[in-house]
Amino acid sequence: MSELFATTGTIAAIATAVVPQQGSVGIVRVSGSQAMALAQSLFHAPGRQVWESHRILYGYIRHPQTQQLVDEALLLIMKAPRSYTREDVVEFHCHGGIMAVQQVLQLCLENGARLAQPGEFTLRAFLNGRLDLTQAEGIADLVGAKSPQAAQSALAGLQGKLAHPIRQLRANCLDILAEIEARIDFEEDLPPLDHKFIISEIDKIAAEITRLLETKDKGELLRTGLKVAIVGRPNVGKSSLLNAWSRSDRAIVTDLPGTTRDVVESQLVVGGIPVQVLDTAGIRETTDQVEKIGVERSHRAANAADLVLLTIDASAGWTEGDREIYEKVQHRPLILVINKIDLLQEEDRKNIESKIQVAKSKIVTAAAQNQGIDALEIAILEIAQSGKVQAADMDLAINQRQAAALTKAKISLEQVQATIAQQFPLDFWTIDLRGAIQALGEITGEEVTESVLERIFSKFCIGK
Question: d(Cα 324, Cα 318) in Å, to the nearest integer?
Fold first, then answer.
């Protein structure tokens, strides 16, 4: 049994981010059968405050032996089963920073608690029936959400919007299995099995699984976002584009070629999708060793990006240097950004896109004038949506583990359909049907192995 599954005893951990000399409140969370006793030994509540569930007490945390004052704090009491873990839970709400919460945690560990493993509070909530596995994963997604839409999707999982259809699909499979097994055990006492009905029900289940699988790529986008690299020759306005897009002076802008020597990052949200934008050094032949390193990093950034914004200078037109860069990045999803459009005459502005016969997606910008950013975001979303994001329910987005289990269930159902088509005996139908039931149960945690749980909860922070 791994350490993660040693879920007996009372556990404690810091449940808030701790930043030196910052933050007004820091929380130490304790869960387990000894949580109340530990709180009573450390916390002094003056006056006649009542120690009952779902109350907040005011008082002082003291060392139980020396009575030395550690902090002035609040104590939140949540007795089982009305708590996050369905165990007795207490939280010490201390002053923020490092020293107070670390001293309180150390007192908890010295007086009967042990340090919680990553995700152990949520694991206990799952094992005690407080959450199913999709809800637990929703909590992790909510903590790590990088956009409002990602948070909304995580909340949907936490509210059971994924678990409900999965449980319904599993129940439908169990009903079909019961019908088939009844005919195997009591063939003479029951009417013949309605093959058409069974096939129709399996088709409906498979179709719903397919619909859920279509949300996988959207879920990945919401969770991890897009990595977008701005590349091009020196002085074409890459840094100006980043600054206009991020509405900040994130990158240094000068008229001197080669100003950007390293990759500059900025975090944005476009249409609900987190976007990591990389402004790279201008790509050109150079003898300057520092600039040469920057150029190499630009190439690496372009090759690692989900989307490349190849930026050119409209006033210079399509140059040999642009062509050389294009040949190196054309294998990546790409948008051609024709920048500095404000330097052209009106007639030339109208014809510039048609003159450059590369890249399917082209937009014109005047980054220094904050023009064309909306068009750029629309073009990015069109590329993302055409290949990855389906126009499905934005509340629902499965993760890779859930997608793998759904795929396994779908394959099992296809095997059942093939078995029926080949007119095999009923016993054969049940084999793959059970496989589908097990795969669907893995998603909610009704059928799950220790190794799967360990992989899921080890990704949580210690205090969650």
Answer: 11
pLDDT tens-digit profile of 4-20?
Answer: 455 679 999 998 877 66
pLDDT digits over 59-83, tens only?
999 999 999 999 999 999 999 999 9
| Coil, strand or helix at 92 | strand
As given in the structure block, the two tokens for residue 181 are 């097994």
Picking from 217, 123, 216, the residue whose alpha carbon sits closest to that of residue 459 is 123
Give the chain's radius of gyration (CA, Å).
29
* DSSP per-residue letters across 193-251: P-HHHHHHHHHHHHHHHHHHHTTHHHHHHHHH-EEEEEEESTTSSHHHHHHHHHTS--S
How many angstroms separate the CA atoms of 438 and 281, rounded? 52
Query: What is the residue-wise DSSP string for 351-362?
Result: HHHHH----S-E
Give CA–CA dist 417/431, Å, rounded: 12
DSSP 400-449: HHHHHHHHHHHHHHHHHHHHHHTT--HHHHHHHHHHHHHHHHHHHTSS--
Q: How many angstroms separate the first and last alpha carbons of the chain? A: 21
Dihedral angle of Cα 292, 297, 298, 299, to the nearest 10 degrees: 100
CB atoms inside a 10 Å sphere around CB 405: 23
CA 217, 221, 223, 225 dihedral sign is: positive
